[in-house]
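[job 0417] fold request received: ABC transporter substrate-binding protein
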Amino acid sequence: MRTPAAAALTSLALLAAACGGGGGDGGGGDGAPARGGTFTYALSADPGGLDPAMGVLSITNTTLSLAYDTLVTASDDGKLVPRLAEKWEVKPDSATFTLRKDVTCSDGSPLTASDVAGSVNHITDPDTKSPIYGVLVPTGMKATADDAAGTVTLSMPEPFSFIVESARSLFIVCGKGVKDRSLLARGTSGTGPYQLTEAVPSDHYTFKVRREYAWGPAGATAADLPETVVLKVIPNEQTAANLLISGTINGATVYGPDRARLEATPGVVKNVVPFTNGQFFYHQGDDRPAHDPEVRKALTQAVNLKELAGIASSGTGRPATGLVMEPRPCKGDSVTGHVPAHDPAAAAAALDAAGWKAGPDGVRVKDGKRLTLRLMYATTRGAGVQAAVEYLGQAWRKAGAEVKLNGIIDAKLSESLNATQDWDVVWLPIGVALPSQLIGFLSGPAAPKGANFAHLDNKRYESLVAEAGLLPSAEGCGTWLEAESALFEAADLVPVVENTVLHAAKGATYDMQAGEFVPTSIRLTQGG
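[job 0417] inference complete; emitting structure tokens
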């Protein structure tokens, strides 16, 4: 049986959230906010089922963020601020949240502490088989409620760094949806400023504003929000860009080459924000060439990572500084100085020393076995990734490897990572909000028994995360960053580039954070 983390892996990796929020560079109409009207946003795929306990895809959580609140949220600089909880008290193994008293669910019922506890415990119930348990919700977390006091306590079996921070990711179900989860397949039952009123899969999702909403972060209300939000499913990014330029839609998140013409279009609000890393992993199974750390380091040295970064991101990326998405709870650079530097001569010497000698056709051989690398990647990630894996193939062929590129669809990639294990190197971005959410992927039981798809066995990383996990988040940050560096020094995975995406708008403004709407930020503009 796969662990919850393993079940969630590919969804997190391939549809990891775009991050950031705030600002933009202007444009989109010069007038004042226009109350009422309809804000239309392009979704790149259908969100699927809408039960928050099952919402592992970024596109699903983008949709849900209009209708559901969390206990806390993060400011643009990463600091935690109140949302449904007006205050909290933290102990090493628990956090007690005091709820606001003026919050109502979309059916008019008041939010209770039991609703919050029920949302958490439903996810951690083994019968739910929630894919976010063990990833967005820490393994072992339990919730207890005191409705009279209006408090809910999240507890862990032992001290845990990010109890409060984990609450950023928990959409709270309340009202009728608590007792009848079937209502959530194509409906919403939350405290957010919008309620889903129409769901037409693979076409559109329509939300209506709740004017009574008055409990947003920093006192935000629904007073100036658009009356309606329509999320239109538009899989083709070029089509979405065309519709935005023409004013047919108001917003879209753009990853590929169309962002350049949007950035050059007058009247378009342009906000470039960090995305997931472009990165690759080596399979370290006992029968794989990269089981040997010297081979991993040599293969990494054979690649000009700076050139690869430009290719993978089509020139729109930034230097990678860590594994966790913005806004990060731990600031700092765990990458610089910790990744084997580009040195083809040293790479060749290291492969020679490891016993991999060039054969008659130039391919290195050891004990009668050719140095063959099956390089796997998802074909859905655009031209930049395709060019990046071709560049990697060329670099490793020059170093004496036989490289076989294997571009496959998401479902096949998931099967290969979690079951068949038919790969040697994989290009795989993983997007998480907390360093603790990576542990199951980077240590522990190897696939198919666990989520450790690359068979990593980095004792220094394991020791450091065990130490960091027992410390309060701020005190443990240096150790969490040191743990990431330990992975890079061993060439367990290679961070190449911090990708960016463009949040574009016309006739409107909006903010997103970790791929989710800040729904109280949505505005239609006069003159847009």
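[job 0417] notes: The first strand starts at residue 33 and ends at 34. Residues 10-30 have pLDDT under 50 and may be disordered.
[job 0417] exit 0
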